[in-house]
From TrEMBL:
In plastids the F-type ATPase is also known as CF(1)CF(0). It holds the Pfam family ATP-synt_B. This is ATP synthase subunit b, chloroplastic. Residues 64-127 form a coiled coil.
Length: 184
């Protein structure tokens, strides 16, 4: 390892062979070398650097312009969506109000129809009751009349002779026939 280090150290002490050689004074050579390198870079790299910066600037400007256009488009879409939302909300409110009105109207119609049906049922019930009462009264009349007639016939049979009996029966049959026609 010592041999490798000695060989690098010996490079700094080359004997000069004429006008060509290495200057090992670091403080004297670095500023000159740096100024030469920077001068060459500035002279030849100036155009390339300007082109690169111009291209980068143009891409940034294009990106900003595209971003602005996209932002404007997004704002327009947002405004259209908000307008559509307001329209849909108004339609929903209208449907809701119409729905409530329709429900109230249907409710009132149903109440009215039910009330009418109840009135008709009450009328039918009353008519049926009157009819049944009249029928019951007529049946009771007939039974009372038949019982009275049988009682009268029984009394007459015991008190009357045959001829008077036949005349009374014919008269009663005539009265019954007349009553029958009246009740029909």
């Amino acid at each position: 390892m010592k041999n490798v280090i000695d060989s690098f150290v010996s490079l700094g002490h080359w004997p000069s062979a004429g006008s060509f050689g290495f200057n090992t004074d670091i403080l004297a050579t670095n500023p000159i070398n740096l100024s030469v390198v920077l001068g060459v870079l500035i002279y030849f790299g100036k155009g390339v650097l300007n082109d690169l910066l111009d291209n980068r600037k143009q891409r940034i400007l294009n990106t900003i312009q595209n971003s602005e256009e996209l932002r404007k488009g997004a704002i327009e879409q947002l405004e259209r969506a908000r307008a559509r939302l307001r329209k849909v909300e108004m339609e929903a409110d209208e449907y809701r109000m119409n729905g409530y009105s329709e429900i109230e109207r249907e409710k009132q119609n149903l109440i009215n129809a039910t009330s009418n049906s109840l009135e008709q049922l009450e009328n039918y019930k009353n008519e049926t009751l009157q009819f049944e009462q009249q029928r019951a009264i007529n049946q009771v009349r007939q039974r009372v009349f038949q019982q009275a007639l049988q009682g009268a016939l029984g009394t007459l049979n015991s008190c009357l002779n045959s001829e008077l009996h036949f005349r009374t029966i014919r008269a009663n049959i005539g009265i019954l026939g007349a009553m029958q026609e009246i009740t029909d």
